[in-house]
Structure formats: structure tokens, C-alpha cells
Amino acid sequence: MNETRPDVDRTLASLKDFQRATVEHAFRRLFTDADATKRFLVADEVGLGKTMVAKGVIAKAVDHLWDDPERRIDVVYICSNSQIARQNLSRLNVVGGREHRHADRLTMLPHVIRDLRSSRVNFVSFTPGTSFQVGSTGGKAEERALLYQMLATTRGREITSRSAWAKFFQGWMSRENFERQIAAIDRTDLDAELCRSFEVEVGRAWGPEGSRLADELEACVQEFTWRRRIADGELARRRDRLVGALRQLVARAAVEHLEPDLVILDEFQRFKDLLDTDHEGADLANAVFDHPDAKVLLLSATPYKMYTLPDEPEGDDHYRDFTRTIQFLGGDERAAVVERELRTMRANMIDGGDPALARAARDRVQHELRQVMCRTERLASTPDRDGMLVEKVLDGTHLTAGDLRAWRAFDDVARQIDRHDVFEYWRSTPYPLNLMERGSYQVRTKFQAAVERGDSDVAAALASGAGLLDWDDVRHYRALDPGNAKMRGLVTDVLDRGAWRLAWVPPSLPYYAPAGAYAQPELRAFTKRLLFSAWSVVPKAVAVVMSYGAERRAMEVPLAAMEEAGRTPTRYDDRPTTPPLQFRMVAGDDPRPGAMSTLGLLYPSPVLARLGDPLDVARELGTLKANQNTVLDVVRGRIETALVELPAGRDEARADDRWYWAAPMLLDRARSHDEESFWELALSRAAEDERHEGGAGFAAHLRLAQEVTSLELGRRPDDLTDVLSRLAVAGPGACALRALSRVTGGERSLTHPVIRREAFNVALGLRSLFNKPEIVALLRSEDDDRYWRAVLDHCLHGVLQSVLDEYAHVLVESEGQQGAHRLERAETIAAVMAEALSIRAATNVVEDVRVRDGRVELDEHRMSSHFAARYGRAVTSEQTAVRESTVRVAYNSPFRPFVLASTSVGQEGLDFHTYSHALVHWNLPGNPVDLEQREGRVHRYKGHAVRKNVAAVHGETVLNDVAADPWAGVFSTAQKACAGGGSDITPFWVYAPPGGAAIERYVPALPLSREAQHYRRLQRTVGAYRLVIGQPRQDDLLRYVGESGVDLDWLRVDLTPEPVEASADERGPDDASRQVFDPATDEPPVAPDPWGSRDAVLWSRVLYDGGLLAINVREGRAVTYAEYQQIGRRAGYSDLRGAAGARIRRDDDGGRWLAFPGRRELEGSAYALGLDLPRDLAW
Q1: What is the DSSP annotation of 589-607?
Q2: Region Disordered: start and end of each range (predicted)?
């Protein structure tokens, strides 16, 4: 049960200034204005954090409704797909805990309705396409199982004792699997009242055949009594229509029991057809939207068609769409006023018009629209309206003679099978007949039919082999021609520049100079590529060709070594499957762990994490540019000092290699860390987690490590300090532990057993990465006992610590963990990291097309995709949805895949910006707005380009900043530097120093092509279309404006909400470096102190080693949070929520800590606290 009132101040403090302004405006219009509206639209430009705005509105709405103790507060989040739901639900939760429920569809809400009644605040989400548009189909198996259990709840044995009911509902699923679906739903969890309502409606409703539904249902079920086989034909269709009718009734009953207070409609444009009263799902949707208590907040960067080209069908779509949207938001009267004033604007924009009348009409339009919507634009907030966008050429995009021969062969085949126009396919994808999936395109279907009937003309057209993928080349790892001008450009841009040599994207803020591939100038600035195409075959082609190209290059050296040694080289389709980083057991009567080197690599040692922190070394050296040998020298000295605490080992001739893994564990034991708790957690996770392929071997290795003190070790290896230094600086275990500690309270988190366990899970994910065949080939070592050293070298060269620190910082916000307890935060971040690292290569069906004896033969093969991935398949299933989710998580990590290819459809609202600022328009969209929408996927909050630029300008501040999270300090410094320059869009969305990183736009259009001409047209309209929003025949008006040469920029309709001044609570000592109470520590925030007087108490707060210190300036005292609780929160102490902004600093001359009552250190106003605190106290 959730009884926690949201902390509105804290939620708003986590937002940027322009987001707070939008929250205040939207909340006021929905809840507190005398003429409050029921619906309000936030139409901020793509990438500006509309989800965070929704979070702020939710917090204020729940707080506003809280004072009614009898009121249950339901927040309903409706989004277009489960991917967006997963991305955003944790970000929207403002009351803590994890009580948000994604029902996927309205018909599954009965599964959670009962839980809603027991909670004060509920978050429920579902998707409209599967909820409002129920249709007459049989739905998903879990829906049918729920229907069965709902009927069984009210009818009892009438349902459960007759097997016909289960047969009726099982659909196309096997009986055994459907019985498991039924068993997965506990009837006692269903809401009895809802089930009774459903039963009543079943008795009242009419069935699809015109009789009473209950009678039709019973008659159809009766026919399943003796049936053994799965129903097909007319009986199956009758059954599906009846199940569809039942699903409709469940959806209606669910809506009636939902009682929404606030409905969030995310990516509103995706389901605007629900506004049509004759649409199938309109009545269900309106039942949600028009609930008496419901307020509706709509989110969409493109709530209506923003721009319509004259050659598009129904050329005035924009105007009709715009007016219909305003009618939905504000009613017919407001829409009529807006239309009238827009006509006045248009009439006075052209020759002979009165500019004063146009301006007045614009002001009236802005006033009316701001009552029901607002919009902030990124580019409008920056002096350069191009923001950070730069157009770049995809080098290598050119045609070859082989491309033309491939076109000729493909065109000949198309003519033989009566499909004449295949030019766009050839221009977009290489090897179309090999890569098109069966049934995906008509040309592929007809080709398949021609092959099956032995069409000799088709065989003759393919006899040359032009444009066909030769499987024999793949099998022998021979170089493949990219096969297409655009693919040739992508291969040149990414693979030929060496990105295949990287296991991760180079860090934006390396703590020392990278080495190896990571030091190459052309790779240090590498960013992932996001590619959009109009054709579904393209993502598959990109994934296959790019992944094979990366793998083939990595295999060159190992294959050459095999041939030189006289061994048979590895073939593509029989690659080794045994991973080198194993938890091997030595066979025998008493199996025991083999080499423990893998465990030593992954072990999260607090001692090594402290001694080998490269950020700490950089601060000691005073530079971020030291080479790795210099860093290792510093750490080596620390390690040598620490090893004095351990026994020297037996004096033997042969060195004991067990020291490599045992020494860190012995050092941790010597420092009296809570080792037993950590090992118990690790063993329990090993027992329950099937992800670890080591199985019993993994647990055996852990048990041996747990007993490390009982080992009798021999002589130390001569290179022990060198190996331990490398492990301390770059070992996966140590790096993961430091990265999690940075975002969970600092150094004190290094020893917490739970955080160490989560670091171990991240390290196990890194093990999965280094066990992937393509990475094993990259590191070029076949000796398992030495491979761990190659892994360690790669981690050292690639500055793994900087990589994980940057990733952890990004995940805190992207996973909505700003307000989470530090242990929950660690678990969430570690889980996402492990998921990204453990992604498995996808397999893609590739047809080998050969001509033999005048006939075409097809053989199916499988090719892996790992370096590049496809996203957004046309055919979806639950398994596909899980895969897509994992692909998105992996792409939004620094790890592979480095290229993501997708169609534009369905990607609105998803983030792809965390490690990509390069977008490839494989095929151009027809509309300038769609162009911006695509690029908005990679131009978002703290995107990769922004982080690179902020680090380049302010990165060295980490040398003097003692903040636990170095990235928080860097962005704080950048924000201070940008203070007074406008909104918080700079530096968090736009930060463009000269020569810095930018959002890269690639358009691989061939010169003189129609595509190149279309691109020039898009370039002319992409910025100016905003001038003609709300106008009919936009292109005509835009052409006139462009030809007239008159500056009409002043006629833009500005819907930016008024800025909001931050309160003293939010500003704290200095708004630019605002210190909000950090919930990553063990202490949760507390309610305001009822005895305290904010006027009398002048205090400050500091983060001390991750803990909280409250300052009472009047009494000259400071207490920790624990002491604050013990003294009963008496008057004179802060309520820990923010107050008058007192400051604290150290008087180095007197050695005292001084508190200043106010934001300025006024002479004579300091109180000496006399606190015994370290010099590096961070506040």
C-alpha cells in the first residue's frame, strides 16, 4: 500500500527551468484556474523531456488531491507500445516504491484492479491499439485465460468441471500450454465486484449472430465437448467472434472500475483516430477521457500533421488535422476563434496586408492556444537556430560496375515474374533476393513461386551470379563487396575506419590517455550510428553485412595463424562455441575448481577499488592526460605497500599463480570488510540465476574463494604487483564496483555487500561480452589461461573505468533512479548494465541462390548480427518484443551493437541518444517534420554529443572536485558557466563549443538522383515550416514567403510558457550548483519539522562521505541525520528540505568550519562550528 505523499519540491527541483515552467502552466490550466480545462497538450519539440514534464504534473496533481483522505488517486499512462512503457514508467513514479502496473491492454486490467483498491496512489499503463480497438478476434492466450478465470469466479464448477470451456478458450494453443496460462492466474487475485459486473453484462449483451450472447456462448462451447483436435474453419471463426465480444465486455467493465484522476496520453499523435466518433474504439477511449474526475494531459511533439506537401494525398491534411486537434482540446468555440484569427494572419502576411493586424491576430492565436497547449522549442532557445546539427558526407557512397550488373540481373528477374519496378529495392539494399524474407515482398513471393515451378527464364537471368551473395565466400571468411552504393558508404565510414576493433564506445572523459585502438584519432570521437529506412529489408541487410564485415576483419589474424601452423582454418558456420572465460572444473572423483583466473578478473575487491581508482590517481598527478604506465606506477607503489600486510608465502622454486586471484581477497579480509555477507549474497545469486553458464562450477569457485584464508600459498609470482595494479585500475570487478559507488553515495559504498554483489553482476555481464566469439577473435588469443590477461589489457587500453562511470551517470536519470534509495539504485543500474552486456547475437535467415543445370536452387543459412542490429520488425510477438527491448537497452549502452537500423514507423518517443549522435537517412522521409522527428531520436537530454563537448570544455574540473559522481560535477560546472545565458536547454540539450561534437546528419543520396533533389527541397522547408503552422496550403504560402525576401519570423506562433522563478527551496545556496538532498544515502527525506521556524533557522546542508549534515547556525552546531533524529527534530534544526541557503566553508588559517547565514559570506556574520571534519568535505 502506497501512503507516501509526493515531495513536490524535490520533484520540481529535478527538472530544468523550462520544464518547471511547463509543469506550472499545465497544472494551473488543468486544476486551479477558474476556467480550468479538462484537456491540456504539451507539444514540446522532440527530445526536450515531455516525460519529465508529465512527472512534475503528476507530482503536483497527486499532492493537490491528497488532502481528501477517502480519495483513491489513479494515474493512467497510455502509450503506444510496451517499449515506451518500460522506458518511462519508472521515470513517472513520484511516490517511491515500484507500484506501477503495465496491463498492456484494457482486457488485462481485471488482473490488477483488486490491487488498486488497496493503494492510495496507483500508476496503471496500457496501450491503446490493443485496448480500445478490441475487435472480434480471439486475442492473446493470457486474455483468454483471464476470461476463463473470471467466468470461473462467478460460475464455479459450471466452468471448471467441463473441459469444453478450456477447449473453447485455448484457441490455437496446445491444451498443456493453455492450462499453464490458466494456472498462472490466481482467481483469488481477481476483483470479485468486477467479475460480477462482467457476468451481469454477459447475461444482458447480444451476441455477434443476433441472439443473446450467453446463449450463443453456451451453444458454441457445447460443440467443443467431444472435440479432440484444435478447432478450425467456421467453428474457429465463431469462437473468435464470441471471444471478441467477451473481450469487449471486459474492457468496458475495466474502464468503469478504473476511476482515473489523471490520464497521460503519450505520443498522442499515434492514436488520434480515437477522436473519430465512428471509430471502433472511440467509445471506450472517451469513457476514459470523459470520466467525471479525469484530467487528460496529452504529450506529443507532433500532435497534428505539422506540414503537408502539395503532392501528398489530401494536401490540406495539416489544416484539418490542426483544427480537429484544437476542437478536441478546447471545444468548437475556441477552435472557431483560432481559425478566424489565423485567416486574419494569412490575409495580412501577403502584399497589401496590414502587419499590425497580423501581429494582433498572432497574439490572439497565442492567447487562445496557450489555454489548452504549450510548446517549447530547442532551437528557439539558442542563438543558432541550427542548434548542434551538421551535415556530413558518407564517404564511399558511389556506384560500381558490379552494382549496375546486379541491377540488370535483378531487373531481368523482375520482368520474368511480372514485377517491373524494383529500382527502389536495388537502390536501398544489397543482395535483395538473398536477404528478403519469404512473404515479405511481392517480388520475393513471385520469385519463390518461379523457383518452385522451375522457371528457366528466371534461371537464365541469374546465371551470371550478379548481385547474389555467394555462401562459399561467407563460409571461408572472404571479403564481401558491400553490394550497394549506400552500404559501401556505411562500410567505409564505420568498418574501414576501424570501429570493429572496439569493444565499446571510447569514453567522453577518460581519466588517462587511452591506448591501442582507443587512441586512434579517427576512433576517439566515434559515436554509434542510427539508421532509418523506408524498407523493412534494409535493417536486416545492414545488420548482416556490417556484422559479417566486422567479424571477418577480426578473424584475419587468427585465421592467418591457423594456416601458418598447418591447421584447418575456422569456417563461418562451424565457429567454436566454448567460451574462454569459464569456471572450469578439474574432473576426477572429487571435482574441484580449475584455474581461478576468471573469478579473479571479476572479483569486486574494495581494497583494489580504492588503491587503483584512476580518477584518484589523475587528481594526484594533476592531469587527465597521463599515459597508462604512469598511472600503473602510482598504483603499483600503493599495492606494494598493501601487500606488506599479507604473509609472504612458502619459499619455493616455483611461483604460485593462485596469488593473482587470492591476494585481493586476502587484502579485503585483512581490512575487516564484511566478507561473509558478500560471499553469502554471491552464492545465493549463483544458485538462483541460470544466466551463469558455469552452473555448479561457478558456485564451487565461489566457495573456494570464500575459504581463501585456509589456503597455503607458495612463492609470490615476480609480476604479482604488476598484475594486481592492472586489476586495480582496469579489472572488470574493481571498475564495476567503483562505477556503482560513484552514484550510490561515494567511497563508503565500496564495502556494502549488496553493492558489491551488484558490481559482481556487472562484471559477470562483462564476462559475457568477452566470451562472445567476435570479441574473442578481436583479442586474438586461443590460450584460455592467457586470455584473461588479454581482456585486462583491453580494459586498460579502453579506460573501462571512465566508460562505466559515464554509463552509470546516464542510467541514474534514464532509469528514473534520482529519488531511489542507494541499494535500489545499485540493483536497477546493475541489472540494466548486465542486460546490455549479455545480449546474444541475433540469427538471420539468408538464402543461398544458385543456378545448377538450368534451375534455381535455394538453400537456407544463418548469419549472425552483433556489431549491427535491426530494430522494429514488422511481425511482432511476445518473444520479439523482449528481443527488441534488449536491443534498445544494448544500443543505449557503450557496448555493441554500434549500428542500429530501423524503419521510422513506431520509433516516436524512444530514446537512442545516449551513445549516438549520428543519424543516417538511408531513405528520406517525405516531410521536413519527419526529418526532425528522426533526428530528435539522438538529440536529447545529456546526449552523447553534449557529454563530449561538456567534458572537452569542463572535464578537468574533476581534478579539483571531490563530488562522488564526477559527471555530476562536470555538468554543474557547465551549468554555472552558462548561467544567465537563457534556459537550461544549455548545457543539457545544446552545448556547441567551436570544433566540438555535433548531431551528424548523413544522407547517402547519389548525385543527380531524384533523392538528391528531394533532399534539397527538404532543406529549404525544414526550418521555415513553423511560420505556416495552422495555415491551409502551407507549401504555397511558404514559397511566397521565401520568394518575397521579407522577414516574417515575427509571425511565428510562440506557445512557450512564462518562465518560473525557482523558489528558495529549489535554489539553495546557488541555483547553478543546487544541492538537493541525495537519496542515494541511507537516510530518506523527512517531513517538514512542525516545530522549526524557517525565518529563525539559518542553516545549510552538506554531503559528507555520502551522509547528510544539518547545520544550526544560531547555536553553532552541526549534527548528522542520525543525531538529528535522536534529538527529536527540535526547533533550531533544518527540516532537511531546503531553507534560507546558508553556506559552509573551511577556514584554512584557523582550521575551523565556518557557517554563513545567507548566500553571501558577509564579514562578521560567520559562526565558528569547531567541527572535526576533513578538508575535502563536499557541499
Answers
A1: SS-EE---HHHHHH---HH
A2: 1059-1089
